[in-house]
Amino acid sequence: MxxxxxxxxxxxxxxxxxxxxERLIESARELALEGGYPAVxxxxxxxxxxxxxxxxxxxxATKDHLLTEVASAWAHHVTDDIDALAVGDxxxxxxxxxxxRIVHVAAREPTLTSAIIQAVTSDDSSxxxxxxxLFLFLRDRLSTAIGDPVPERDEVEIVLGHxxxxxxxxxxxxxxxxxxxxxxxxxxGRLVLAGALSTTART
Length: 203
Description:
The protein is mainly alpha-helical.
């Protein structure tokens, strides 16, 4: 199964295959939006997309693999307009704008957010590669938002990624109010960047 998972992520798809794969991802997203994690089954995804059930398994090894790809599509959609989102004169202002945008979009779609968080944090080995691709993409988005050179940038991106994951878990699983979560990411972003910059000031 692990080999199948790697194959589905890395193989080159024809135009028709890519369209079919995207239709399956969109069908899973719609089901998750309607009913959360329990509503997404490979059978119902196949029915929603108008394909045979076996077709789903040609592209996705498991439900969690499929939902992790839904998470990736969601992340791309939310951050596509990164240049417009990353507004401000300082790295902190730009970072805060991006983090708050993600938090507020996630809060508007709690059932979807809960479903993709459950999948992304799964111990299902078929998720591993898709999850790595997703996390690297989010690191890139965070790096773009920060913009200016920051000491220990890799470490900063990794920590911010974990902060973002914690924020989404707070929304989806702990049901914390969106404004509290938004305040948390603002504070965390400020402290992480201040810590990195203070390292340079001391040297």
